[in-house]
Structures are given as structure tokens and as C-alpha cells.
Amino acid sequence: MRTSKFFLSTLKEAPAEAELVSHRLMLRAGLIRRLGSGLYSWLPLGHRVLRKVESIVREEMNRAGALEMLMPSVVPAELWQETGRWEAFGPQMLKIIDRHERAFLYGPTHEEVVTDVARREIKSYRQLPVHLYQIQTKFRDEIRPRFGVMRAREFLMKDGYSFHADHADLEREYRNMYETYTRIFTRLGLQFRAVAADTGAIGGTGSHEFHVLADSGEDAIAYSQDSGFAANIELAEAVAPASGRAPASRPLDKVATPGTTRCEDLAALLKLPLEKTMKAIAAMGSDGFCLLMLRGDHSLNELKAGKIDGMAGLRFATDAEIEQHLGCRPGYIGPPPISADRKVRVVADRSAAALSDFACGANEEGFHLKDVNWGRDLPEPDLVADIRNVVDGDASPDGTGKLAICRGIEVGHIFQLGTKYSEAMKAVYLDESGTSRPMVMGCYGIGVSRIVAAAIEQGHDDKGIVFPAQIAPFSVAILPIGGAKNPAVMETAVKLYDALLASGVDVLFDDRDERPGVMFADMELIGIPHRLVISDRGLKAGTAEYKGRRDASSVNVPIDEALEHLKRALASA
Amino acid sequence: MRTSKFFLSTLKEAPAEAELVSHRLMLRAGLIRRLGSGLYSWLPLGHRVLRKVESIVREEMNRAGALEMLMPSVVPAELWQETGRWEAFGPQMLKIIDRHERAFLYGPTHEEVVTDVARREIKSYRQLPVHLYQIQTKFRDEIRPRFGVMRAREFLMKDGYSFHADHADLEREYRNMYETYTRIFTRLGLQFRAVAADTGAIGGTGSHEFHVLADSGEDAIAYSQDSGFAANIELAEAVAPASGRAPASRPLDKVATPGTTRCEDLAALLKLPLEKTMKAIAAMGSDGFCLLMLRGDHSLNELKAGKIDGMAGLRFATDAEIEQHLGCRPGYIGPPPISADRKVRVVADRSAAALSDFACGANEEGFHLKDVNWGRDLPEPDLVADIRNVVDGDASPDGTGKLAICRGIEVGHIFQLGTKYSEAMKAVYLDESGTSRPMVMGCYGIGVSRIVAAAIEQGHDDKGIVFPAQIAPFSVAILPIGGAKNPAVMETAVKLYDALLASGVDVLFDDRDERPGVMFADMELIGIPHRLVISDRGLKAGTAEYKGRRDASSVNVPIDEALEHLKRALASA
Question: pTM to 2 decimals?
Fold first, then answer.
């Protein structure tokens, strides 16, 4: 493609409202333009990226045996009324009234439509399994759309739905999709993690999110650096320390700690490591008052704590409740000593239960206890459980390696739906014995347009976008410097351009009569992975100048070898 | 693809509401399923056809230099208010209100959006020309959707828009698109005609429709069998007979013709050819009463007649008006004789003006005149003009060959918009002299989903669909007869299947354990162009049975040559 025949529309500055780096760069590079709130046009440059992402997704879905189809974007309300989602989905669903005053919606997802197809077409176990998918424009009427195409109202999505005779076959397809998504994001050239998205209550295989790793990601992810384990930080299990609890080694001591209510201050005052202090969190659950004990360096995971028997509806206790149950104001509270008449329920985190010779509140204003030990000074906890958030360096719950924490952008989600939709919509089949059974379903989404933004969040520098080679709008840029006035430069550049085209390389030939600085800046801004500069000075030296987008500096290569050099660079990308 | 892994869902009968053959066959073959009024899901089989059409359109648009992009389907009302189309477009426009009570529409076409992109991005003549297109789902809220995807509410369309510095450059791109559309429909394997869609008043180059020829088409088209001329029958020019008017050869005669009010009856009574009779149509226009004279075998074209000076607002005269102006009841009227005091305006069609010795009404109930001649018996017509519909056998207005009449389905439209949208939306650029000018625009549409239905209207027989090879869902079907019980049959069939796959052929391997009759019927119904049958009997004879979808009968080919035979058949298709 020649730049003169293309529609390059770069900007020096992005509009002020663009907060996210990908949003700013997509506007500056001219990948997208805003049409309205949460509505973006994909200009030709951005569209090339979008189509490349789409193609990889399609190829891998087809390879995995899924069948592409296309459902209407405008869906009759009746179908969503059957599953109750017409009322339940909320205001993100864009309702539409047609000229006959009939109610429709712009599909934000298509479980109902595809289940309707399945219940009409599938009668027998012999027709199962089947996996239908589409790549389609969706709409979610976000209340405050922002971040460009990262959270747009109209977006491009791959949504797939599988139908099975039983749960075992759903699990087989779920693994197939797990592997397919892994192949897709690998081919897209992205660093990503598959994250267990559920609580583990249904075996930990019910749902996985695929996250592109990026500092700006909305979700925090804990992952093992040595295995495939990854989970949303809210859900990652904090395992018990392998070493267990050391024996008590020093006698209990009560120390005056006036004005010292935080563990950090206590550790400093007592010259202890923070992890030798203990915080007590007073909470109210369905069974009443409870003390949650955590190491000073750990934080409570309310999701986990709320799932403990008797802790449903967890909330923090009020000061009055604390005084009532412990006889002490917050800041100095702790479990009543083993000798005390007063008893309260104590739930200790696994790490807290493994501490010995630790410091904690004395249940007396202005005092803490030092060298405290469970069983000796305090009763053993009523319950030891995982109630904290994992931290960097924790052992991985799969037993392999340590956890690290990173941030991610959700770009894919696979989900074992089971029979939720098939039962609501009576999508049944006859099994081998002639018995009618609901089909077992899975669903599998990929945010195609969001991937473009996520790739840029992961790949950019101060000059602009650094696209993975697989989805860059062009693979190579050829820049003839001063070519308009120098026929030798132009001729050499055109020859290379033609040779690359003939080899099937996606090459942009910058034949604009622009200053070199403008050409360099544009090609770096739009993220072309390989750049070859032909100049008068180079020609005289018999060289062309090559630079990879991630390279710190350029190299001169003999003109005759430039083509081979580029091809090697392309092959190694 | 193996049938067992595919989603084949054929029906013996189509639902009763399907009127059109393409609609019936698309339902029976399982290409589409109805979701709601004018809303269809494309099942995997139909989707393959849709994607093949889309790919050919995309390839040729790209080859022609157009740049693909993607605009939102949901468009803010403000843009359409700028051009006045928010009010003018009518109820086919699907209006949408979002959660913030702001007005949008589901774009039925995108002139406003693309013009908004152009006015923001294009500042200088140096950025022109540019041609932007998209392939996108559109919505038109038809009051009575019918004929399946032929006139659906939601449909897939390629819509392109070009921007130019002047009209000459628009005309260049218009020709480019004319040729591109010709290539597209040729590659799609369709019989089609490019039809001049306007009146010729702006040079005949302002708009062309591309029609797929099919008996069921909504539009009648007149075309030259010897040249590229084609026009909507309403607009095709009826030229004057080349031979001119013959001299009068017989004296005027008045004959009694009681009860004979139609030209057909008059010709029979007088034993004249119909084309020697003349019909007089009494009409009222802006200048009052007028007689339109046509040969008995011709029909009035009201569109043409209404454009004559003084005939604006053309309507047929009432009986009272006829009596008032001619003194005679309808059925026997004609121009007042040359000798009469009574004068009325007479407009004669070119063919009528060229007649001599003809028969027409005597302006006296129960009587006609015979061997009438203009200038001798009747005054020369006040005006000679083209006021009739062309008929089969007319001379082509481009001077080459004779006209034939056929019916067509509009699948493409190219249009020189000029500055209609750029002026309304202030889409201007600076020309070389620094003057601000409105961009000159063209627009170019193709009904991608409609093409699938049109191809079936053109290609079908009593067994089902006969797809052009280029857009068939699969190119080849391999049928192993009784393969489930005969390993030799299955093995031979699989070998051929694998060899075809390795050659990149789109092949469907029917590995269902079905009766041969079911397999044959399904493969014929869905329109696979080439079929190869492997059977026990064939194997014993060392042959496979080949049949092209259009062939009357099958041929046996040696097993060893079956692959080559298929490849030859594929290449010649």
C-alpha cells in the first residue's frame, strides 16, 4: 500500500478526554474516531488491525471445530422474556421499539437466540455436540462509556455457544476452548494469563477469564511464575505456610503502647518485623460477633470471609459492638486471654494461626501483648481458614512456585453454563434411550475490538504504539527519504516495495513528499514493526537503514541484502 | 468438513409463508432460519455462502483502491438532522432511544457518518480522492418484510463512499466502480446487467443499478442482446422507426364497428395487423386536455408522457372531459379530422407518427376510420415524442442490436451524489488555490445478503439450489455409500477426501450413516456443484460415480482418475 493511496490521519495531540494510553494512541495514530458517546468509527488503519485480530480468532475457532454462523443483532423481546433477562439484564440492554410498537433489543449477547436455534434444529443425541459461534457487533448501553474501544457501547465480539448431551462432554469442549483461546492469544503475540474466574465451589473448572497483562488493567491477577496457575486476586487461595507453627520461645509480655493503634506503628515501636504482629478485625456475621485474626502484613478478603459458616452477610462491627463484646475500644483489641471468662468466636487466617511469639492488642486501651502464643496465652482459634488476599511471594496454591501479582485486561471468557438456558427455554434432546433431556451448554466470548486496545496497553512507548507483528496494520514500512526529488532513491525503494509485495508481505510504502522527521514519527506512532529507510546518503554508501520498532538503534545493511534482512526479521518476529 | 461435524439441517417442506423460490429453498436447505419478522439467522451452511460472497466483494473493492473501514451501526440523530433525513427518511428508519433518552438510529445507510469523518479528516486537495467502504449489518424497518433475506429488515451490505476534488474525478471513480461491480458479479458467477437507472437527463451516467437476471425479479429490464445497453423498462428510450413514414397508398374509409372499442378487436374485425391500428388516450396535463396517440400494440409510459411540456401532473381524462373536448364517448375517439373546426392537442408517439394507412377511432360512436394518414386526413401531430414502453424486438437506443426484455433483482447500485451531503454538512477542502470547496461525492452499494437469495432465484431446479461454483457452501461432496458397514468404501472415500483437502478444495464428506437417497437429495438440495459417489458396486468395477449438479446424468470414472477428474471439473466450472 502506498501512503498516497491510503488514509493516514495522525494527530500531534489526543483529545483531552482520552485518559487511557491506548485510547490516546488510537486517536493519535488515526485507528479510530469518535462518533458519539461510546461509539467509534474504525478508520482504514485501525480496521486493518481489527480484521487481523478477527482472522486469527476465526481461524482458530474453525480449527477447533466450532461452526461460524450469524444471528440478527436486533432480537425480539419475547426470547429474553422467556429466560427472565428482559427484566434482569438491567439498563445496559438497549431496548428498541419498531414501527409496529413491538419490543426488541440490540443483542449484548446471544444465549437466547442460539438456544432458540438449537431447540428448533436439534432433536437427537446424534446431532450433539455442536459449537456455534459468530463474530458480530454488540451493544451495551454503558452508563458512562470511556477508555475508547476498551469500554465502548458498540463493540465487536466473538461469541460461541456449545451444546452437549452431558456435562462430561461440555468439560471436553471447555478444555478444547481453553486450549484454543491459549493458541489465539499466543498467535496474537500477547502476554496473557488464563485466570480461574470462579470460587472453586464447582471444581474450579466452571469459568476462566483470559487477561492481557498490562499495568493499566482493571483486574489484579495472582499467578505462579513457574506454572500455569493464575486467578483473580480476589479468588486466589492463600495456602498455609509449609513450615507450620514454631514452638513458643519467649514469655508473654504486656507493653504500654499509647497512641499506637496500627500494626505498622506497633512493629516500629517494638522493633519487630510487621509479619510478627497480628491484627484483629471485629466483624458481624449471621451468627453474630466474631474476631478475624490476620498477620499485620496481610489484608482481609471479605469475599472469602463472607463464605465461612456463620459469617454470611459479613460487615465490620461498630465501635459500640466492639466495646460490648470485648470491653475495649478499637485499636487495642485482641482475643480474650485463655484465662478470661469472656469468650468470643475467633477465626484465624492460616498464616496468622501459624505464628508464634507474636504481638497483638491486649484488649486494654494503650496496651499490647508481646511474644503471644496460641494455646499458651490465647485459646486456639475456633476456626483456621483462608480469609486473606494473596500477596506477592506467597506459595502458589497449585504447589508449584511462588505467586506474583500483576494487572490484566479481560479479553476472553469461557464459561460452563450447564442447563440454565436450555431448561428455561426447553431446549431438549432425546438421548439413546429415548429420554428427553436438557442440552448442557457452554459459552465462550472474545472481545475482538477490545483486544486492539489491550494490545496497545501492553505494547507502547513514548513514540507511540508497538504492535505485535501479527496484528500490526502493516508489517514493514519503506521510507524513501527525499524520493520526490531523487529518482535513484525512489527507484530503489519501489524495487524493494514490489519485491516485498510479491512475497506477500504487508508493506506500507511512504511515498508522501514529507520531511524525514514526519515520516519517522508517523511510522513509529502507528506501530509498524519493521522500518527500512532508503536515502541518498545510504545509496552512496550502498546501504539501507533497518530498524525494528523495539530496537534502540538502526543498523545499516547492504542494499543488495536489504530484502533478505527484512525477511529474516519478519520470520523471527 | 465431515457432515457429522457440521450442522446440516434440511427440511422436506418449507414453511407455508415462504412465497419466493429462494426463500423456500434457503429454509429447506438450512441456510437460514427465521428469528422474527424480517430477521434471519444464517446457519453455518448459509454463512459459508454469505462469507464467500463477502470475500469476493472485499477483494475486488480492495483491488479497486477502496479502503475498508467500519462505522458504528448505531448513529446519533444529530447527524441525520443536519441533512434533514431524520425527518425525511420515513418509518423505514429504526429510531432508538438510549438510557439517557438521547435519540439514535440503526443506520440503514451511512452517508452522514462517512461525510462527518471526511469533514473532520480531509482538509486539502492533496488528501483527495479517497474511497471508504464497509461491509456491515444494516436495518430498514420494512412495513411488511417478506421474501426471506431478499427483503429482510436486518441485512448485510457493502456501502462505499468516495470523495473527490471535482466532478471529473468522481466520474473517473464511477467508471472504476462500474468496472469493479462488473468484475464482482462476474466472479460471483451470476448473469447480470448494469442498468442505467436515471432518466438520462444528467447524461445517463449519474446512476446505474446492477441486476441479477431472474424471472422472479421485481424490475423489468430492457437490454440489447448485441451491446452493453440496459435500462429499466420504465426508462428505456423507444427510438423512431428507422424506415420513417411510408406514403399514403389508399383512400380514407369510414367503417361501422359497433361494440368494437379495443384495438385488438378492431384489428380482428378489419383483418389488420395490430400495429396498423392506433389508440388514442385522452389525458389531462398542466396545459389541459390532450390526445396521446400510440400504435395499438404499444403501451403508454406515463413517466415519459408526464415529462412533456404542458403534461405535468398527467392523468387520464374523465368520460365527461372526453365528451366535452371530442364530442364522443370513449372507445371510438381519435384526433378531429384535418377539416374539423374542433382542435385538440395531439401528441403522437414516434412509432405512431411513422404510421400510414392506419385505423383509428372516427370520433363517432360505433365507427372507426380506415387507411387514415397524418397530414392528409388528420393534422400532423402537434408533437412527436417518445411516450411508450419499449417492447421486445425494438431497436436498441444505442444503435446496436434489438432490445429484449427480462426481469432482474437489484443487487448493486452506483450513484453520483455530487455535493448533496457535503454541502449540507459543510464537508469542504481547500483546492490548489486555497479556495474552500465542497467535496464531490459518489456512493456505491451492494446487497451482500440479498445476493445469496438472488443467486438462488437464478440458479435452482426441482431438486433444489444450483449454486455458482464460486459461492457454493462446498465445492465437492463425497458420498461413501454404506460406508459405515464397508471399510473398503470408507477407506477409499477418506483417501479422496484427504487428497482434496490437501489440494485446498472445499469438500464436504458425507459420513452420516444415511440411506443413499437421503444423501443424494441433501447434496442436491444444498447445491453442491460436484458430487462423487463411492460404492461397493463401483469399487468392484474399479470406478467412482461423478455428477455435476447441472448434469443430467452421472458418469463412472476409474477410481485412480477420480481425483484428476474432479480437479478438471473444478477448474472448468
Answer: 0.88
